[in-house]
Automatic annotation (TrEMBL):
SUPFAM superfamilies: Protein kinase-like (PK-like). Keywords: Capsid protein, Virion. It comes from Dehalobacterium formicoaceticum. It comes from the Bacteria. The keyword 4Fe-4S does not apply. This is CotS family spore coat protein. Gene3D superfamilies: 3.90.1200.10, Phosphorylase Kinase, domain 1.
Length: 338
């Protein structure tokens, strides 16, 4: 705690209480209010980007985020003991529960309002973030090729683990699904949408999970933790909200409609966005991620853990495919002619 006190000495307030929340995250109660101190692990250029976009949102009048707090000397970050620290205001409220329709509605409305303001930020010197505007066709194609590569690797083995047997049994299905997603994106107005987003310099949150929404006393949702923010099209965020909220609820179509209706009420999506969203929804992302971690050795789960996750993803995929079919009929077919 001595190191944290040294960091906090760079800020202009008296400390009342410091409460560790999780690794390298602290709730700091002070003479000037309650703040959140976080030890950054994304690199200085990314933290400067996060500071820049939060400051931009504050200046735009978007109040449903935790605003950044500069040090006494005006610096956006504090360097101490080879680490970088970042301070924001603390947002009080209760955790968001995507199984509650009122929470889901509030989250969708906040995401839409965020997207209205998430463009054209002036960045601090040294700030940098990944730009995805024109990259999604390549990304989906590369991931589909990964699925094929994992199949080939498995076929060459003389002895298979239970995970590899399961993957080989469904490989053709998921490869075909990846190819279908690529074709959908190719036939969409993706390039037009990406070009507009790039011109506007729009950015996204990227990690729109329930844990990153706080339901405040007024029942509105605040959006926190911008660690994964980057330049991208807003459809990517909307799809992530659908995935994160529906994946464990059998891809409930009515809840999907509720999310889209709530989002549209605040910031309508252009008709061309739906075909792009369909491509994202069609891609077997969860299976690709689990398989990549297994075959590339990116995490140290036990074989049983990998098998359990793959089996779970496969069960959910059938619901997702049904949702995609309904989504296409409701939101894409009727809009193709305008």
């Amino acid at each position: 705690m001595k190191g944290i006190l040294s960091v906090l000495s760079h800020y202009d307030f008296s400390i009342h209480c410091i409460i560790p929340i999780q690794d390298d995250v602290y709730r700091v109660e002070t003479s000037r209010g309650v703040y959140c101190l976080k030890c950054a692990n994304k690199g200085e250029h990314k933290m400067l980007f996060i500071y820049s976009i939060l400051k931009h949102l504050e200046e735009q009048g978007f109040t449903k985020v935790s605003f950044p707090v500069p040090a006494k000397d005006g610096s956006p970050l504090v360097h101490h003991d080879h680490k970088i620290y970042f301070m924001t205001h603390w947002i009080s409220g209760i955790p968001c529960d995507f199984k509650r329709e009122d929470h889901l509605t509030a989250a969708a409305e906040t995401l839409a309002e965020f997207h209205q303001h998430a463009k054209g930020a002036k960045l601090l010197e040294g700030a940098k973030a990944r730009a995805m505007y024109r990259k999604w066709p390549h990304v989906l194609q590369k991931r589909t090729e990964d699925l094929q590569k994992f199949k080939s690797l498995t076929q060459k083995k003389s002895s298979l683990t239970p995970f590899e047997k399961k993957y080989l049994a469904i490989a053709d299905q998921v490869i075909a699904q990846g190819g279908k997603a690529c074709a959908t994106l190719q036939s969409s107005e993706y390039r037009k949408i990406a070009k507009k987003a790039e011109k506007e310099q729009s950015f996204t949150h990227r990690d729109v999970a329930a844990r990153n929404f706080i339901i405040e006393d007024d029942k509105k949702a605040a959006l926190i933790d911008f660690d994964y923010a980057r330049y991208d099209i807003r459809a990517a965020d909307v799809v992530r909200l659908l995935e994160r909220s529906l994946r464990d609820q059998h891809w409930h179509e009515e809840k999907g409609d509720l999310i889209l209706k709530s989002y549209q009420k605040v910031y309508p999506l252009e008709k061309e966005q739906y075909q792009v969203m369909l491509a994202f929804l069609q891609f077997p992302q969860k299976i690709w991620r689990i398989s990549e971690r297994y075959f590339e050795g990116k995490v140290s789960w036990q074989d049983e853990g990998f098998l359990k996750k793959l089996s779970s993803a496969l069960r959910k995929m059938s619901y997702q495919e049904k949702f995609c079919h309904s989504f296409e009929n409701k939101y894409c077919q009727a809009r193709k002619g305008g």
